[in-house]
Every structure is written in C-alpha cells, then in structure tokens.
Design goal:
Blueprint: E1 3-7, E2 10-12, E3 18-25, E4 34-39, E5 46-51, E6 57-59, E7 67-72, E8 77-82, E9 91-97, E10 108-112
Parallel strand pairs: 2-10
Antiparallel strand pairs: 1-3, 3-8, 4-5, 4-9, 5-6, 7-8, 9-10
Length: 114
C-alpha cells in the first residue's frame, strides 16, 4: 500500500504562490495517474488537477491557468504549483491516484487571506 505525505501548504496573501509536494512510499508507479484534490470547510472533496502517464494534465476550470501539476517519477513525488491564489482556494489539499485507491494522507492546509 502506498503511503502519501503532502507538504508545502501555508498562509499566503491573495495573488501569492505556493508549491505543494506529495511523496509516496515505497513508490508511486509511473504508470499511475495522479491527482491533487482539495476539501474546503463544509464542502466535499474535489479534484482540481490530474496528471497522466505521459505527462498530460487536466485542470478544474476554476484553477486552469493558475495551477500546474507535475511529477518526478524518480523521486516518487507529485507537485502542484499554485499561482495567483484566491481566497476561494483555501482548503486542505491532498494527492491520490485516479481513482483515489490509496489511503488518504493527512493533507496540507492552504489558507489564502489578507
């Protein structure tokens, strides 16, 4: 079973940037599509970005052009570069496979506030 650990969250002002990391152990198979999900208070968890085996990526409309998902297979790590952050991006961010077959990690809190 893959164990996922997310990191990189924090408090940032609107318009700011953060880069999230998700490392899987013992490894994330390079053929496994991966995604970043988020859950805001009182809302259901949602998929915001996904990356496929060949590196192609798809984004939720509301983050298109602002977020970039990438992966380093040698490091078993998936990244989410987030730019131009908005208060509505505030949530706990998680990574998981597509579909989310791995056990959920603890997530990393992102708070966008002035």
């Amino acid at each position: 079973q893959v164990q996922l650990v997310e990191s990189g969250g924090g408090l940032v002002q609107p318009g700011g940037s953060l880069t999230l990391s998700c490392t899987g152990s013992p490894s994330i198979p390079r053929t496994t599509p991966m995604g970043w999900y988020r859950q805001a208070p009182g809302k259901q968890r949602e998929l915001v970005a996904r990356i496929f085996r060949g590196g192609a990526s798809v984004y939720k409309d509301s983050v298109e052009g602002r977020f970039t998902i990438s992966r380093d297979n040698a490091k078993n790590t998936v990244y989410l570069q987030m730019n131009s952050l908005k208060p509505e991006d505030t949530a706990v961010y998680y990574c998981n496979a597509l579909p989310p077959d791995y056990k959920w990690g603890q997530g990393t809190q992102v708070t966008v506030s002035a």
